[in-house]
Structures are given as C-alpha cells and as structure tokens.
Design goal:
ligand-gated monoatomic ion channel activity; signal; 11 helices; five-stranded mixed β-sheet; single chain; Iontro_rcpt_C; Amino acid ABC transporter substrate-binding protein; alpha/beta; Solute-binding_3/MltF_N
C-alpha cells in the first residue's frame, strides 16, 4: 500500500501538468493593453469599467477575430515591456509609431494621424512654438510621449519639466508654473475647454503628423496580418465614423471649422 502512494502522486501530478498545458494552448483570449488615463480614447466609466475610442476598437477587433477580449490597464511605461514578455497580445493605447519603438515591437498599418499642440497659460506671451524656445521659459511634458521627444530634440533653450501624468502637466500650466504643455491637438483642445479661464490653445500644426498604430510582439506576423485585415475592414465599413460620432462629435465639428485634418480621415 505504501508503494502505491508515490505512484498515485505521480499520476496526479502528471494529470495536473497536462491539464495546465491544455488550458494554455486552448486559451483563445485576446489580451489588450492600454493606459486608462487618456479620455476619450482610453478611460473608465463611473463604475470603473474601461471605455473610450480604443476600448471600442479593441472590442471590434475581438469580434472580427472571434476571440474574447480582456482589457489590461497598464501604466504607459509598462505597455511595451508587457508586450515583450507576453503578458498582453497587443497594445491599443493611442501609441505613435516611432522608429525607436519599431526596434522592439511591430506596428500595424496606421489607423490615425495626430499633430502636436500647445496648452499655454493665459498670462503667458507665448503665441508659437518658436517663442517657447528661449531661456526662462518652462514647458511641461509627459514622460515617454512624442511631446517629450519633440521638446528634448527641438526646444534646446527651454527648461523641460518631465512629469508622469497628463493631469500633472495641465496643473503646472493652470497654476503658472509652466508656460506651456505639449501634447496631441485633441487633448490640448479638450483641456483648454476645461480650463478656459486660465489657458489658451495653440492648435496650428508645427510638425509632420504622427501615425498611431496597434502594437504587437516582435515577429508575431500572424496576429499582425490579422490586425491589418481588421483595420481595412473596419475603415471600409465606417467603423471610425461611428466612433467619431459616439465620442468625438463636437471635436470633429471644431476641427472641420478650423480646416484641420481629422484623426481618422
């Protein structure tokens, strides 16, 4: 009887391992990473559930691929490492395609075009990006963003205040601690609407457009090709028009009035 105990344990252990392997291989879940701190693209509703442009895009991708979707809320700096380690399958988080990021992950075809803008303190005499590039001026930037890269590469005379969150950057401007905050046009427009008494928005583009793409792990060609097929189908079936109508109707009207190109055109 004593000899049977280890045999039974071995059988049970083997069954557990096989069951675990089977569960892993049959897991069809599509895990999408995004930082839920960028309304209206990636944010939470009143109950704390993910919502926004990128969430709807992720759900539509899951339906197209016939895979259930899980949204993982991950800090911006952790998105690419999470992709590299296999914690998530894709990143849909308003991420700009850059050559530096291309070195470590792959991107889908671009699905949106964005430009940078400036949120300026209302008492500041700044009216252009050139006027910001001088000693004594301070600009707030969110770490790791293309606004941060633009400032470090082009505003050599400006003091750069790199912070961890968009809200912290905005507060620096509204309180007069920074002359400006550099970010995408749409966010600048929305933050100006929320802080009209203390800020003004400079929305005229001062650099080439930035392309947003869906990030996948390096060399995951099968998923990448499927995502590109989905984006083509989604655009052809007016999916981006529906998202604009749901989340960005007022902004679209304003951009049309200013004759600015729209994100998804």
């Amino acid at each position: 009887m004593k000899k049977l105990v280890p045999i039974v344990l071995i059988i049970l252990l083997g069954s557990t391992i096989l069951a675990s392997c089977k569960s892993k291989t049959e897991d069809n879940t599509l895990t999408i990473g995004m930082e839920l701190a960028y309304p209206p693209f990636e944010t939470k509703d009143e109950e704390g559930n993910p919502t926004g442009v990128s969430v709807d895009l992720a759900k539509a991708l899951g339906e197209y691929l016939d895979r259930p979707v899980i949204i993982e809320n991950i800090n911006w700096d952790g998105l690419i490492p999470s992709l590299q380690t296999g914690k998530i399958d894709a990143v849909i988080s308003s991420m700009t395609i850059t050559e530096k990021r291309r070195e470590v992950i792959d991107f889908s075809e671009p699905y949106a075009d964005a430009y940078l803008g400036l949120l300026v303190n209302k008492n500041s005499n700044i009216n252009s990006i050139e006027e910001l590039n001088q000693k004594g001026k301070v600009i707030s930037v969110k770490k790791g963003t293309t606004g941060y890269l633009y400032a470090t590469n082009n505003l050599m005379n400006t003091k750069i205040n790199a912070l961890s969150s968009e809200n912290a950057c905005v507060v620096e401007v509204t309180q007069g601690k920074a002359d400006a905050f550099i970010y995408d046009q749409l966010t600048i427009y929305r933050q100006n609407k929320l802080n009209e008494e203390t800020t003004k928005a400079l929305l005229i583009p001062f650099q080439d457009s930035e392309n947003w793409g869906i990030g996948v792990k390096k060399d995951n060609t099968e998923l990448l090709n499927s995502i590109n097929d989905f984006l083509k189908d989604f655009k052809e079936n007016n999916g981006f028009d529906d998202i604009t109508e749901k989340y960005l109707k007022e902004e679209k009207q304003t951009f049309d009035e200013l004759d600015f190109p729209w994100f998804f055109d």
